[in-house]
Amino acid sequence: MLIHSGSTNSARLLPPENLGARRWRARETVAREGDHPEYLLVIRQGWAARMRRLGDGVRQITGVYIPGDICDTFWLEGRPVSQPVVALSDLRVASVPMSDVRRRAKEQASLRDALWKETQRTAEARSEWMVSLARRDSIARLAHIFCELLARQHVTGQASGNCCDLPLTQHDLADLAGITPVHTNRTLQAMRAQGLIELRSKRLRILDPERLKAIAAFDDGYLPLPDEPQVGELMLNEI
């Protein structure tokens, strides 16, 4: 499922003196359609989502940003924002001027390579999203979302065993999985009844990880490797 949205691997090569703190409250808009952002945002605390709104008010979440992610490397193209970004919870970020990113990318092959690697990963994540919407049923879609979120939070050290944060409402999950909120509620009930997951106090516990991976046909090959350092976080800690 397409929820991976940029690792801080590409941020580690940027000078920490150019970073500034910004905050948004839950449900506030971080970037509007048509905006021309001047900064890349390194998520420090909280979650955000990229989404596409349709004319009838329906929305599809196309990316979820968790602490350690960059929002959004696609902004480097210089085009207007095509999909708004909204804070899903109270959000704190470090901002990096895109002019600096572009300049250093021209000067440093290592930064260009890191940005290219992120582009490849995002393309692979979008392929997973297309498979989910086209071929996976509702249980498999949510199973894939949960497996990916747990895997991503393990990479950043935010998960503990088979437990991780999940500050998403059922409406958020519905808009991420491409199903209705009512269908989402029924699917979650079915997953609980099958002993697959437990949701409590904005925390997810996967009770049977191997079975959940099998249901989702989950392969984490498009995600950062578990032993890769969270280099963006290391960079920010030097400020």
CATH homologous superfamily of the largest domain?
Jelly Rolls
Question: What is the 3D shape?
Answer: globular
**Any low-confidence stretches, pLDDT <50, length ≥5?**
8-18, 229-239
User: How does the major sheet shape up?
Assistant: 4 strands, antiparallel
Output the structural class: alpha+beta
Helix share, percent: 25-40%
Distance between the termini: 34 Å
Structure annotation, total helices: 7
Based on CA atoms alone, the radius of gyration comes out at 17 Å
Task: Assign the CATH topology of the largest domain.
Answer: Jelly Rolls
Strand content: 15-25%
Arrangement of strands in the largest sheet: 1-8-3-6
Number of beta strands: 11
Mean pLDDT: 85
CATH architect. name of the largest domain: Sandwich
N-to-C series of helices and strands: EEEEEEEEHHHEHHEEHH
CATH structural class of the largest domain: Mainly Beta
Number of domains: 2
Write a concise keyword list for the protein shown above:
239 residues, alpha+beta, Jelly Rolls, Arc Repressor Mutant, subunit A, 2 domains, 4-stranded antiparallel sheet, 7 helices, disordered C terminus
